[in-house]
Structures are given as C-alpha cells and as structure tokens.
Amino acid sequence: TLPSVRMSGGGHPSGDVMTEPARSVAADTPAREVAAVLLGEGIGSVVVGDADGIVTKTDILRGSEDGRLDAPVSELMTSPVVAVSRDADVQTAIDHMDAYEIKRLVVEDGDEAVGVVSTTDIRRTLATDLDSVIGMFAGGAESGGENTYECVSCGTRVTAASKPGTCADCDAPMRNISMPRN
C-alpha cells in the first residue's frame, strides 16, 4: 500500500503521471498474444476495451501456471475496471488503489480509457517532488560541491555537482541520497 500523502488542489492530476496511451486489446485475444504485447512494449497491463477489464503481467503469469495461455484474455482479466478521471488528483488515485488493493488504475477522459496510472508512476512523481522540497530546505549541495544521486527504480548511483534528470540505465527519476532524510 502506498503511503497516504495528502495533496492539495495544487497536486498532480492523475493525467499528468499516467502512462499513455492506454494499450487495449479485444476480449477474445488469446492470453499468449497479450503476453507478447506486454513483453514487447515493456508495459505492465492492457485494457480489455470491449469487456470493461484490465489484464496485468500477474494475471498472465497465473494463466500460464494454469495452462490457459491459449484462452481468451477475458478469462484472465480483472473486471470491472477501477478508474479515475484524467483530472482526479493523485491522492484520489492512491485512495482508490488502497481501497481496492490494486496497483493499477485506468485513467479515463469521459468514457474513454486514455492511460493507466500505476504505483510505480505515483512513486516516481512523489520521489521527484520530495527531492525538490528537501533541496529547498537543505540549501544546495553538500561539501565538495557534489552529491550522490540514486535512481528511484533500479538503484543506480552517480556522483555529480547537479541533479541528473533521469537514470542513464532505465530513464527513471534520480533522488539525492547525500542529504539526511529524517
């Protein structure tokens, strides 16, 4: 469960942190084909567009263990989809994930699925925001002018005079670990 971090109206809308566009498949698509889509596109889920469902890597793995990779994906999907609107703040997404004990939400614009927001998307956003706040209070770099930064996703570390934008290995945000976090 993600921590409850209250964000005011100035917080991030879910549409700003989602992965887009929402990849979708038909309900009769074989699970094996959906597995190839997930792996080939490096995504964690697809929306089952005509059946109000979502299929994750975990669903596909369970289907594989049960010998159901040739079954229609509608047999493996979670339904109905839990969704938030594009303009719902990130706290609303966190609250929905917590209430339904899920890791992904469909983001909708009207009735159309436009993206998916995951716990990873939210964690990356919150980690980046936290570094900005810490930087304001810390007043800049430590002695020697260099800090150690760590990737929030893969853990790669670099030492630099200024914060790298993203990790060179996986393109995730970096956080400053030189400053104590009490």
Element-by-element helix/strand order:
HEHEEHEHEEHEEE
Mean pLDDT, nearest integer?
81
Helix content, binned percent: 25-40%
**Per the principal axes of the C-alpha atoms, what is the gross shape?**
globular
What kind of assembly state do the chains in view correspond to? single chain
Please give the radius of gyration in angstroms: 19 Å
The biggest sheet amounts to: 3 strands, mixed
Strand order of the largest sheet: 1-2-3
The beta-strand count equals 9
**Fraction in beta strands:** 15-25%
Based on secondary structure, the structural category is alpha/beta
Query: What is the end-to-end distance?
Result: 21 Å
Helical run tally = 5
Flag low-confidence runs.
1-10
Kindly describe this structure.
With 182 residues, this protein is an alpha/beta fold. 30% of the residues lie in helices and 21% in strands. It has helices spanning 14-17, 31-41, 57-65, 90-100, 119-138; strands spanning 24-25, 45-48, 53-56, 83-85, 104-109, 112-118, 147-151, 157-160, 174-176. The strands form three sheets. Strands 1-2-3 form a three-stranded mixed sheet. The protein is globular, with a radius of gyration of 19 Å.
